[in-house]
Design a protein that fits this description.
Structural class: alpha/beta
Shape: elongated
Strand content: 15-25%
Number of helices: 10
Order of helices and strands: EEEHEEHHHEHEHEEHEHEEHEHEE
CATH topology of the domain at 2-74 and 146-215: Rossmann fold
Strand order of the largest sheet: 5-6-7-3-8-9
Largest sheet: 6 strands, mixed
CATH superfamily of the domain at 2-74 and 146-215: P-loop containing nucleotide triphosphate hydrolases
Mean pLDDT: 82
Helix content: 25-40%
């Protein structure tokens, strides 16, 4: 388990990480999201003892990384895929890592096979593509068979087959009972990989919740087409529902914050024929863009027409459970509070993680 408590990091006048507190639990994939410059990489570096916090602390299984014995057996990390001597072979690179932490040399060929690099194990790592380097970095993270894993942008450089492979691979690692934290900018992919999200902006916590809870903040929109559109509009208005013409000029209506069941029952009660009745909610990417809009530091030129309008988000009610106010001076939408201690019950795990070489 990874615990972050009041973690803060400043560089001169710049506060890169601002009083972050969250927990990464075992048995699930936790996505770590935020715009460029949000503080994700800095936070992960502090978790691994590569940067010293200005305040607060980050612990792994209750201890700072610097106090872990045989750290590669407890924590595996991929932060920079090109962190490898270019003239070493993939096998030699992993062998010296294994030797430095008392890991059997036989483990090297096991992890090379796991990531699909057995055929190029003797080749110079400097000649690897970015995708192959990512696989080698994964092999290094898995070398000690650790129970905690941190991956920063692990799908960079991978082809479509490789992206599908790593998605299944990461999820399988979590199903074994490991703690898995994954930072990524590929939000569509993260929606397929992560169970839980920690979202930050300008170093501050924005959300700490499940993917479903995060995307549920968006307004659900129902779209309906009918040859009796005006009758339908009147029937919906009579039931207290407000409809609008479809944006693309089609003979269709849209309604927010209603269900298809409601619209269908009203149409049936008024003998109105429907040609389409569908609902949609925003994707993880769309909700992320709206929730972090006030924390983006680097904006490109959107060209004529400007950026698209933000999607609709359900307005939180004062005092609603699971919501907190932003810190003073922070712009943007309200943040989520962490879920209740313990989280949802998951029951026994058939893929219980068993570390290499028995108990540590």
């Amino acid at each position: 388990m990874i615990s972050v408590e009041g973690l803060t990091k400043t560089y001169g006048p710049t506060r890169a990480v601002d009083n972050l507190t969250f927990t990464v639990k075992p048995g699930m994939v936790t996505g770590f999201l935020g715009p460029n410059g949000a503080g994700k990489s800095t936070t992960m570096r502090m978790m691994l003892g590569l940067d010293r916090p200005t305040a607060g602390k980050a612990t792994i299984n209750g201890r700072p990384y610097s106090e872990l014995r045989d750290p590669l057996r407890q924590v595996g990390a991929l932060l920079d895929a090109k962190w490898v001597h270019p003239n070493r072979s993939a096998r030699s690179h992993l062998r010296w890592m294994a030797a430095s932490n008392g890991i059997p040399a036989s483990r090297v060929d096991e992890v090379l096979a796991d990531v699909g690099l057995s055929a190029v194990a003797g080749k110079r790592a400097g000649g690897f593509s970015l995708g192959m380097s990512q696989r080698l970095g994964l092999a290094g993270a898995l070398l000690g068979d650790p129970g905690v894993l941190l991956f920063d942008e692990p799908v960079n450089g991978l082809d479509p087959e490789g992206i599908v492979w790593i998605r299944k691979f990461i999820r399988a690692l979590a199903q074994q009972g490991r703690t898995v934290l994954v930072s990524s900018h590929l939000l569509t992919e993260m929606s397929l990989t992560a169970d839980h999200l920690v979202v930050i902006g300008q170093g501050r916590l924005i959300a700490d919740c499940s993917v479903k809870e995060f995307t549920s903040r968006a307004t659900q929109t129902v779209r309906v087409r009918s040859p009796q559109l005006e009758q339908l509009r009147a029937a919906l208005a009579g039931a207290g529902l407000t409809s609008a013409d479809a944006a693309n000029g089609e003979a269709a209506l849209t309604l927010d914050d209603v269900t298809t069941d409601q619209v269908g029952e009203i149409a049936a009660a008024n003998a109105i024929t429907l040609h389409e009745l569908s609902s949609s909610t925003a994707s993880l990417e769309e909700v992320f863009m709206s929730m972090t809009a006030g924390t983006v530091q680097y904006h490109g030129n959107t060209g004529p027409g400007g950026a698209p309008a933000p999607i609709g988000l359900t307005k939180p009610q004062a005092g609603a459970p699971g919501l907190v106010s932003p810190p003073p001076g922070q712009q943007g939408p309200p943040a989520f509070a962490p879920p209740p201690p313990g989280g949802p019950a998951t029951g026994p795990n058939p893929y219980e993680y068993k570390p290499l070489g028995g108990a540590r």
